[in-house]
Specification:
Elements: E1 3-6, H1 7-17, E2 34-41, E3 53-59, E4 65-71, E5 74-81, E6 89-90, E7 103-109, E8 115-120, E9 122-125, E10 128-134, E11 139-143, E12 149-152, E13 169-173, E14 179-182, E15 188-192, E16 197-202, E17 210-214, E18 217-221, E19 226-230, E20 235-237, E21 256-259, E22 265-270, E23 273-278, E24 283-289, E25 300-309, E26 312-319, E27 324-336, E28 341-347, H2 352-364, E29 368-374, H3 384-396, E30 403-405, H4 411-416, H5 424-430, H6 438-442, E31 445-446, E32 449-450, E33 453-465, H7 466-471, H8 475-488, H9 500-509, H10 524-544, H11 547-558, H12 577-580, E34 586-591, H13 594-606, E35 610-614, E36 621-630, H14 637-648, H15 650-653, E37 661-662, H16 665-674, H17 678-681, E38 684-685, E39 688-689, H18 695-705, E40 710-711, H19 716-730, H20 736-752
Parallel strand pairs: 1-24, 28-29, 28-30, 36-40
Antiparallel strand pairs: 2-27, 3-4, 4-5, 5-6, 7-8, 8-11, 9-10, 11-12, 13-14, 14-15, 15-16, 17-18, 18-19, 19-20, 21-22, 22-23, 23-24, 25-26, 26-27, 30-36, 31-32, 33-34, 33-35, 33-36, 33-37, 38-39
């Protein structure tokens, strides 16, 4: 059986097991084991700006590091570092090496610093250059250490049934001087640079997604295995079965391979860390723990790694805005092998925002290891209710998590039962200084105490003509508007939605608190009105729906994609441009980010009769996202409070994974005005000129945010009961009365437990 050796785990286990006794039989204090890799950010040492792009990071034979890059208006730039990435100097490279208007498609360097580039004319779409996308024939050239360029004659076979030119990308140079690269079919070619001839071709049925060369061995990762080939003969070797559990290659940056310094050394990384393996051996060693480093980051991806010296590494990362950063990893003998403190965070479902917050918090607090646990995973058959019951049992037994993400959890019940700790001291450190949206925070205040807080939130709104908006103030007036509208326009579409479950979710969120009493019991008459009106609105929409829309709904339902199988968010983002162009009278959804606001204000700028407003201007609903609280029974109160304090801080609130607006007002103001989105979204969309919101529009929107006061109703157990019964009712399988009785029975059962 293959053994997996992980240095930090072994050290911590030895510490836990071995106790030294004195001659008198007294236990000596065990020394905390020392030694682990430490991450150091070197990004400020080389800033290529927002339009810089790095093609390769290479270690030369004298341990010099070389970067091959370009910028929007600079076709080729080369930087070198002789001190392990601490400082960089720019090499003098002529801009005439690459023809005018051409751009690099791939680039690398050999051990002596000779650069190999592939270049061509980039694709142009609607007058805009699509960088790193090519329709033309790709040319190749070699640029030596003094900047002399020599064309390379490389011709690849055509790909069957594809008329575009075949070319190489992800190019690398092996120690023997041969060029390697992946073509359009997912095959790796080995080419003699002296004459441009193909030496060998390496293929896989599923295509080769990633490869590297270690000595004379080509290692190729496919979707299911790690294959090996001898580059001196071109023949296949035995698969690297020891690495099969490390290659779930699902997205860019999840898995990177490179050659190490030692003979036959393979280095590779994934979200769990950085590893090394000596070919032919039976040990895989984790060098850097992903949970304590940027390897596990969700907003930037590891795109390259080089071993600088034996056991020292430089990793290259790229964030979602294509900005690059560098992290140095070096072994420290003085730091504890594992953090001395642990903090457990629980979420019913996976939560990208919390996972990224944990990573950044640990960087600032290396003595605390934060463990993230989820009640539900895609791999098990546990239901949400089972997961909640398990958590409740653990909390009552004093074994629960330290901090709880309360999305889809019975928040009010937890407060009433004393499960959540009073966090008024934390909130009191921010609210008096005006650093938080006080109105959002106060929605979670009970008996003058805070027991939870959302980290982010969004705003459910309706968008349409001002005259239409004036007529709709609640669910009943919505139904009345439809009746009146149909008198003059019997076949026009009023608003769109994916399926009946989405409609129920959205109307439930802003209406359930009108028919659910404070003690959880149900007002049957008001619930009957809710189901009846929801069914009427649904039937009206189906009656006039475009056949393509109906087909899309049916397809979603048949494939199990119904909104009933749901997400945490009640509201989808919406598309105000459909109202602007006359397709719909209304658009219903949430403003979750500044791009949503930009679509709204752009549509209003194009047609001044349009506007947007809150769902209910009396209750002023908002949708809380990532609500957190501290377990009152935890013995780890100080660290839990330290983490929560960080989550509300400006640093913590800047974590942007499109999870809604930050509750921190300073960060909200900063991120809303920090970036012009017209380049990212496009200057024209559906015939409408896209413009960033004006200062007044920002001010007006902020004023709306400051008026919000009521969280939408969030009880997933009650929602599930409503979704199940209403699904049958909307499709005429049961009557309204039967649906109401079914919902009440399930809610009563829930309350009795």
């Amino acid at each position: 059986m293959n053994k997996i050796f992980i240095r930090t785990i072994v050290l911590s286990l030895l510490c836990a097991i071995i106790l030294s006794l004195t001659a008198c039989g007294k236990v000596k204090t065990a020394e905390v084991p020392k030694g682990r890799y430490v991450e150091e950010d070197l990004s400020s040492n080389l800033d290529l700006g927002k339009d810089g792009y790095i093609y390769d990071l290479v270690r030369l034979e004298d341990n010099t590091l070389e970067i091959i890059a370009d910028k929007k208006d600079v076709p080729l730039e080369v930087y070198i570092s002789k001190d392990s990435g601490k400082t960089w100097s720019k090499k003098n490279i002529s801009n005439s090496i690459i023809p005018t208007d051409n751009k690099i498609s791939s680039a690398t360097a050999d051990e002596k610093g000779n650069i190999i580039i592939a270049y061509g004319l980039p694709k142009v779409y609607k007058g805009n250059i699509e960088y790193h996308t090519f329709d033309s024939k790709i040319s190749y050239a070699k640029v030596d250490a003094v900047g002399k360029s020599t064309p390379l004659s490389i011709t690849l076979p055509k790909i069957t049934d594809i008329t575009v030119y075949n070319s190489l990308h992800s190019i690398k140079v092996a120690a023997n001087g041969d060029l390697f690269g992946v073509d359009g079919s997912g095959s790796v070619y080995q080419i003699d640079l002296a004459n441009g001839k193909i030496k060998n071709k390496y293929t896989s049925n599923s295509g080769i997604s990633l490869y590297t060369i270690v000595g004379t061995t080509l290692i190729a990762a496919t979707s299911s295995k790690m294959a090996q080939y001898d580059i001196t003969t071109g023949k296949a070797l035995a698969d690297l079965t020891i690495l099969k559990d490390y290659i779930p290659i699902t997205e860019s940056g999840d898995f990177i391979m490179t050659n190490g310094i030692a003979k036959n050394e393979l280095c590779f990384s994934n979200k769990k860390g950085l590893y090394r393996y000596i070919l032919g051996g039976n040990l895989v060693e984790r060098m850097v723990d992903g949970s304590l480093s940027s390897f596990s980051s969700l907003d930037m991806f590891n795109v390259d790694v080089v071993e600088i010296t034996d056991g020292q590494y430089l990793a290259l990362y790229r964030d979602k805005e294509n900005k690059f950063s560098f992290m140095n990893y070096e072994y420290s003998k003085t730091i504890a092998s594992v953090p001395s403190n642990e903090l457990t965070v629980y979420s019913l479902k996976d939560n990208a925002t919390i996972k990224q917050e944990i990573l950044l918090f640990q960087k600032s607090n290396p003595d605390i290891r934060v463990i993230f646990e989820t009640g539900l995973t895609e791999k098990d058959a546990v239901t949400a209710e089972d997961a909640r019951k398990t958590l409740n049992t653990e909390i009552l037994a004093g074994k629960g998590p330290d901090l709880i993400v309360l999305d889809e959890m019975p928040l009010n019940s937890y407060i009433d039962k004393g499960i959540l700790a009073d966090i008024s001291d934390i909130m009191g450190a921010y609210i008096p200084k005006g650093e938080l949206f006080e109105n959002i925070a106060n929605a979670y205040k009970k008996n003058d105490k805070f027991y939870a807080t959302p980290l982010r939130f969004d705003v459910p709104v309706m968008f349409g003509g001002q005259e239409t908006l004036n007529k709709i103030t609640d669910l009943k007036s919505f139904g009345d508007y439809i009746v009146d509208f149909r008198k003059s326009k019997p076949n026009a579409t009023i608003f769109g939605f994916n399926d009946g479950a989405q409609l129920v979710r959205e109307l439930f969120a802003v209406n359930a608190d009108s028919w659910i009493n404070e003690d959880g019991t149900v007002d049957k008459n008001k619930l009957t009105d809710f189901i009846s009106l929801t069914k009427y609105i649904y039937k009206d929409a189906i009656k006039v729906a475009n056949p393509k829309v109906l087909f899309s709904m049916q397809t979603r339902l048949a494939s199990g994609q119904s909104s009933k199988n749901s997400k945490v968010k009640a509201f989808d983002s919406f598309w105000p441009l459909s109202v602007n162009n006359g397709t719909d009278q209304l658009s219903i959804g949430s403003i979750s980010w500044k791009s949503d606001l930009m679509h709204i204000t752009s549509a209003i700028s194009n047609k001044s009769s349009l506007n947007y407003k809150m769902f209910n201007e009396e209750k002023k609903y908002f949708e809380p996202l990532t609500v957190v609280g501290i377990n009152s029974k935890t013995a780890n109160v100080e660290n839990a409070k330290k983490f929560l304090t960080y989550l509300l801080s400006e640093e913590g609130q800047k974590v942007d994974l499109l999870g809604g607006f930050p509750i921190n007002k300073n960060v909200f103001s900063e991120v809303m005005k920090a970036k012009d989105l017209t380049e990212e979204i496009g200057s024209v969309n559906n015939g409408i000129k896209m413009v960033m919101p004006s200062e007044k529009q920002f001010t007006d929107f902020t004023a709306m945010m400051e008026q919000l006061k009521t969280p939408i109703f969030q009880n997933s157990i009650i929602l599930d009961a409503v979704l199940e019964a209403s699904d049958k009712c909307l499709n005429d399988e049961i009557s309204v009365d039967e649906a109401v009785n079914s919902i009440i029975a399930k809610i009563n059962l829930y309350l009795s437990e």
